[in-house]
Design a protein that fits this description.
single chain; about 800 residues; alpha+beta; 16 helices; 36 strands
Length: about 800
């Protein structure tokens, strides 16, 4: 038993030794035989100090216990232009401590960027600029917390405001007491009322905060025009840093000049403008109201070329008048054979009188008085189209007739002047109105009595002696009365209408015995009241025949001294949804240009009867070059004349604008669906080197003059007076060349009622100083004052990009 027990214990012991050896090998525990070797291999320090074999840039150690190289070792990085590399050297005196190495240009830039980044972050956390050292300084200790914000925002904390001007104020108390026993006590006392009024306010303010924020304003409460008051607030950071995103912010009177020629900027704006920079990208944005309009004129050989556009409702109001209904009825027939006038009517003498509102009382030409009391009679000299034929006050006598048996105008055509002169107190200025009313005449309908002055022919009016109408160069007010007296010949016989000069004109209808009857009658009597033919009364009535004496077929294109060369004129019709057309669609005259329809194209350039597709430039008939008036050879071109040309009553209702001739101009414009005709063209006026731009107070910087060699230079090629809007060409070679010179400028819209809003965005990408890629977007729109607008006056909404 004991042997078996010992044998079992020996087996267990052997198994345990084997298992222990296996466990020891799996857990890598040191064996007793390896302990001495392990100790000999682990004699290194916990943080070893190893020598550096590379340069101090590429083999830079990071051991915090390393004291680094001593200061006697000079570490340098020098540029070698021969090899185009940066040499890294370390010296002890004049001897190399280690072998030199090198860096390429890209490696050197990377090294410098890394060192600057490390230095910046060390400064932020208060680490000294030395090598791996701390100085314990607070990074905010060098910052002035009181002034830093204002310095960064405004470039300084100084505030400078200078105010100049004057303010006149009126104030006081107004108290009134009326001792009236019939009034209640409360109504007897009025006040006290406090009165306060700014009589005058004129102020100039210039302010500055720091170096970045500037403010200037010029305000006058009694300024005539809006552009006299200027205000601008400007924030600019360009002078302090070229890396700021916000370059400038402007508010008030701003401008948007653009460098390109494709899209023009604007100068006279009021709103907000900002300029931003994102690296090489520069962005300018603006939101403003536009205070001006772009205009362009062309000069050729010293002449001015401009475009015009006139609506059908823009005829010359109260400027041109027929002398009688006879002249009106024969107008179109007389112009059938232009340029010859088919008429035997020849005006010999005329006097034109208008209400005297200038206190004129001086002798006129020929000894006549330039101011007189007149009575203008509506039906004087008329035998047809009387004011009120049903009253039987005026009787037709035996009027003279023309070769077509039509009654001629003459004072003796009816009994009007005979009856008046036979009445009582007609020579008395104070009693003449009463005398005329006694005879059954109605004031402001049959006659007008006023104190008038005589106009000067050639200066204040012109006359067409064959067609029998006058054109005024003055503006008639609604209350003005216009009267005429004239003598004319027809088929070698002379007739008179009204009283000429200081005498009573003869009443007989035909004066054939004296070739100059006017000369015999001047100066014989001192008639206090002159009886004239009335062309316009103080209260025009569209229902009276006198309304037709005002011509409504003459249009002012806004030109003076118009030259035949380069003159173009055409008539257009605004077809809804299809734009402007030179024809009337869906009519029997649809194949004819409107210029031919209105008989403005019957002649060629030599005035021969042959159409050439261009406007017939017939001086003093179709156009008056001196005043820039265009006359249609039709009485009512857009009315009855167009209706007869269409010859279809149903279609005519769509196109004919009858209201233009049967209503006042104001009432006619209330029918916008008929106001679709436009007269457009261009003209050249003969001027010198001194040129009027047709505007004043032009915004400086808005004028661009382009000549044969490109953009002209102000002060060398031309000079301009921005206040009165006159440009003078200094370089005579420009005018002598005969080449076209274009002038673009901005005209202040002084009296514009519609507010125009302009939004703009300009982006410029500048990869270098020689390359610029730009893009522009502009949106100009306006809001109408009322929901209903006339055709042609529609509010604009234009977008432009490029």
């Amino acid at each position: 038993m004991m042997n078996k027990r010992h044998t079992l214990l020996g087996i267990l012991l052997i198994v345990g030794v084997v298992a222990l050896g296996a466990f020891t090998s799996n857990t890598n525990l040191p064996s007793p035989f390896e302990e001495e070797v392990e100790v000999s291999n682990s004699k290194k320090d916990t943080i070893p100090l190893e020598p550096r074999y590379g340069d101090f840039i590429n083999d830079e150690g990071s051991n915090p216990f390393d004291l680094n190289d001593p200061s006697i070792i000079k570490q340098e990085v020098e540029y070698d232009p021969v090899s185009d590399r940066y040499i890294i050297s370390e010296r002890l005196g004049d001897e190399y401590y280690r072998m030199p190495t090198y860096l390429t240009f890209e490696e050197y830039l990377e090294y410098r960027a890394k060192k600057q980044e490390e230095s910046y972050f060390r400064e932020l956390r208060g680490v000294a600029s030395g090598k791996n050292g701390l100085d314990g300084a607070d990074p905010l200790s060098k910052i002035d917390l009181e002034n830093s914000l204002s310095d960064r925002l405004f470039g300084g904390s100084g505030v400078d405001i200078q105010v100049q001007g004057n303010i006149d104020m009126f104030f006081g108390l107004n108290y009134q007491y009326t001792d009236n026993p019939a009034w209640p006590l409360r109504q007897r006392r009025t006040g006290p009322l406090f009165l306060f009024d700014f009589d005058q306010l004129q102020m100039n303010v210039d302010g500055q905060i720091g170096e970045k924020l500037n403010f200037s304003t010029n305000y006058n409460a009694q300024a005539t025009f809006d552009f006299d008051n200027q205000m601008k607030l400007e924030y600019a950071s360009d002078a302090f840093s070229e890396d700021d995103i916000i370059k400038t912010i402007e508010a008030g009177n701003v401008s948007l000049p653009l460098q390109g020629s494709l899209i023009q900027g604007a100068q006279n704006l009021f709103g907000l403008k900002t300029q931003l920079q994102f690296g090489h990208l520069f962005v300018t944005a603006i939101a403003s109201q536009q205070k001006s309009e772009q205009e362009q004129i062309e000069l050729k050989g010293g002449s001015q070329i401009r475009e015009f556009e006139v609506g059908a409702d823009d005829y010359d109001v109260n400027r041109h008048f027929f002398l009688s209904h006879y002249n009106r009825e024969g107008f179109e027939e007389s112009l059938e054979n232009m340029p010859q006038i088919k008429s035997l009517f020849k005006l010999k003498q005329i006097e034109v009188w208008v209400t005297n509102d200038r206190n004129v009382n001086t002798p006129g030409e020929g000894g006549n008085r330039a101011a007189r009391d007149i009575v203008a009679l509506t039906d004087l000299g008329e035998s047809e189209r009387l004011t009120d034929p049903q009253r039987n006050i005026i009787r037709i006598l035996n009027p003279p007739t023309d070769i077509n048996n039509r009654p001629l105008p003459d004072s003796a055509s009816n009994n009007m002047l005979n009856e008046i002169l036979a009445g009582e107190n007609v020579d008395n200025v104070d009693e003449v109105v009463k005398s005329l009313k006694t005879q059954g005449l109605i004031q402001s309908i049959d006659f007008e009595k006023t104190q008038a002055r005589m106009l000067r022919e050639g200066q204040e009016y012109t006359v067409n002696r064959e067609l029998g109408f006058i054109s005024l160069n003055i503006n008639l007010q609604p209350y003005h009365v216009l009267g005429v007296a004239y003598a004319y010949s027809y088929n070698n016989e002379t007739y008179t209408v009204g009283q000429l000069g200081n005498t009573k004109a003869p009443v007989s209808s035909v004066i054939s015995t004296n070739p100059n009857p006017i000369a015999d009658t001047l100066g014989q009597n001192d008639q206090k009241v002159l009886f004239l033919k009335m062309l316009k009364g103080s209260a025009p009535n569209i229902g009276r025949p006198i309304w037709d004496l005002m011509m409504k077929n003459i249009y002012n294109i806004g030109a003076y001294q118009v030259d035949r060369e380069d003159f173009r004129l055409d008539v257009f019709y605004e077809d809804p949804g299809k734009g402007q057309r030179r024809f009337l669609p869906d009519t029997r005259i649809g194949g004819k240009p409107l210029l031919q329809v209105f008989n403005l194209d019957r002649l060629n350039s030599r005035l021969d009867p042959q159409r050439d597709g261009a406007f017939d430039f017939v001086e003093n008939l179709t156009i008056y070059p001196r005043t820039g008036r265009v006359m249609f050879p039709a009485l009512e071109p857009f009315g009855t004349y167009l209706r007869d040309s269409i010859a279809d009553e149903t279609l005519a209702e769509k196109y004919v604008y009858d209201e233009l001739y049967t209503e006042t101009i104001t009432s006619a414009r209330e029918v916008p669906e008929k106001n679709r005709f436009t007269i457009k063209g261009r003209y050249r006026t003969s001027v010198t080197a001194d040129i009027s731009l047709g505007a004043f107070n032009i915004p400086p910087g808005s004028v661009t003059v382009t000549g044969p060699g490109g953009i002209l230079v102000e002060g060398i090629d031309y000079e301009i007076d921005y206040n009165i809007g006159r440009l003078k060409i200094l370089n005579d070679a420009i005018l002598a060349s005969g080449q076209t010179v274009r002038v673009r400028f901005e005209d202040n819209t002084l009296f514009g009622l519609q507010s125009k809003v302009m939004l703009g965005l300009r982006a410029d990408y500048k990869p270098s100083d020689d390359v610029n890629i730009g893009a522009t977007y502009m949106h100009l729109f306006e809001r109408p004052l009322t929901a209903k607008v006339n055709i042609g006056d529609d509010p604009i909404s234009n977008k432009m990009y490029g």
